[in-house]
Amino acid sequence: MTVQIHQRSAVLEAFRAAGIRQVLTDPVEVAIFAKDACPLDQAMPAFVVVAESADDVVAAVRVCNRFSLPFTARGAGTGISGGAVPVEGGVVISLAKLNRILEVDPENRCAWVGPGLVNLQLSEHVRPYGLHYAPDPSSYMVSTIGGNVAENAGGPHCLAYGVTTNHILGLELVLPTGEVVTLGGKAAEYPGFDLRGLVVGSEGTLGIVTRVLVKLTPNPPELRTLLISFRSLADAAAAVSAVIAAGVIPVALEMMDRPCLEVIEEYVHAGYPADAEAVLIVEVDGLPGKVAAEAEQVAQIARAHNAVEVRLATDPEQRARLWFGRRAAFGAIAKLKPNYYLHDFVVPRTRLVEVLTQIRTICEKYGFVPLNVFHAGDGNLHPLIVYDYAEAGAYERALRAGQEIIRVCIAAGGTLSGEHGIGIEKRDLMPLVFSPEDLAAMRRLKRAFDPNNLANPDKLLPLETAGQEAAH
Ligand SMILES: Cc1cc2nc3c(=O)[nH]c(=O)nc-3n(C[C@H](O)[C@H](O)[C@H](O)COP(=O)(O)OP(=O)(O)OC[C@H]3O[C@@H](n4cnc5c(N)ncnc54)[C@H](O)[C@@H]3O)c2cc1C
Question: How many whole angstroms separate alpha carbon 307 and alpha carbon 280?
């Protein structure tokens, strides 16, 4: 249920009476919160609560319960699966102002932070302690820790260090009915259900995270970054599998194809080779002896797979330039067309070439050239389809191509998402990878947390028809 016209002033009054100072209702201000970075959907909320404290979040959730209003948590709105798109006429609860670092505990290598803290700011803050926060989504300059938790975000350096869930020790959660619980904490192990683990990746459907206890990782004593270029995508992909099979787990193993390299090079001049069909950025870290040996091993494997150039970044500036190019990819493509549809799947590494070839064929059928920049080490593909929304039929063609690509990835033994989540985008595709029993169990779990079905209710799980509802 969404807010009725006659209820608007009563709801607004209830927010104010609960002590919430900032509630946006002006359509111009509210419109900013109607969508995230996913091109598929948008919806106007009736209210945006700009929370200034965890108490504001509790108060807002309780008002939503009183008026049966669906609510959607929002960090920076960089999500790509529509997770932060509100229900039309519902409530957005913005966490962006809960961005403080509440406690740094260097001895226990952890910190309590607000959910609105921007990812990169955390690592910058703890650098004097020789520590950093390892999960580094490419959006790390803007996306929030709360959004990263809700999406179980990954990033280039998650291959060896693990994705977000491996770095979250505890959470404070406002349940969808307004109670506050603390899950996990500084102790190494907690008995009972791992509710912390359950909430990570739950896309705001089980409540709103108001504090996060993150694990901090020591900065490595040494690291080496290699740029390796190939004349064929197949050679690059084979080198990726061979590196992992040899037992080397680089901290990062990223791949970019030629269309992507061309546009990045034109945009930021990262120094990428102009004639390569594919490049790998490989980074190894650890103690100096181990790093030197692993870098050499990676170089040898690459040469054995026909690498045309193996370039070692010799100083921090060169390394930063290589990474800057990689991270600038999504901005660079604006040079091509104003809109893009970015996909996110995981396929077995051994099937990378086959799937990339099929993706290209599908895109060409619909008149697009795909760009590929992705976490090759864990088979996490990110084909990008660039289009111009103003061009008649282009958006619809991009969607149809996307649907076909998803099915190809699933048929290759892949899964729906590596890190961007399900949101609205892939909600109705969940039956492709989960049985009716699996989905029913997930629904029962959602109801246990959210009996009134108000917390981001239309995300993650396929929408139920009346008949299905009755069956569960
Ligand atoms: C250019 C670009 C590059 C990207 N690269 C990566 C990448 O490398 N890896 C990756 O994983 N993702 C990437 N993303 C996707 C996106 O940045 C991540 O999903 C990120 O974690 C979202 O954070 P956010 O603060 O923007 O969250 P939002 O988009 O605001 O919200 C995302 C979801 O989290 C929920 N949520 C937000 N805050 C809370 C909270 N406090 N409590 C409960 N639920 C909450 C929302 O309801 C929504 O469902 C990229 C996006 C862009 C635009």
Answer: 10
Distance between CA atoms of residues 453 and 360, nearest Å: 40
Cβ-contact 267, 330 below 8 angstroms: no
- Taking the centre of ligand 1 as the mean of its atom positions, its distance from the CA of residue 95, in whole angstroms, is 12
Is 0.90 surpassed by the pTM of this model?
A: yes
Please say whether the beta carbons of 419 and 153 come within 8 A.
yes
DSSP symbols for 262-323: HHHHHHH-----TT-SEEEEEEEEESHHHHHHHHHHHHHHHHHTT-SEEEE--SHHHHHHHH
pLDDT tens by residue, 100-122:
999 999 999 999 999 999 999 99
pLDDT tens column, 272-291: 998 899 999 999 999 989 99
Which residue ranges have their beta carbon within 6 Å of ligand 1?
A: 36-37, 72-80, 83-84, 95, 115, 137-139, 143-144, 146-148, 150-151, 153-155, 203-204, 208-209, 330, 419-420, 456, 459
Interhelix angle 258-268/316-327, nearest 10 degrees: 120
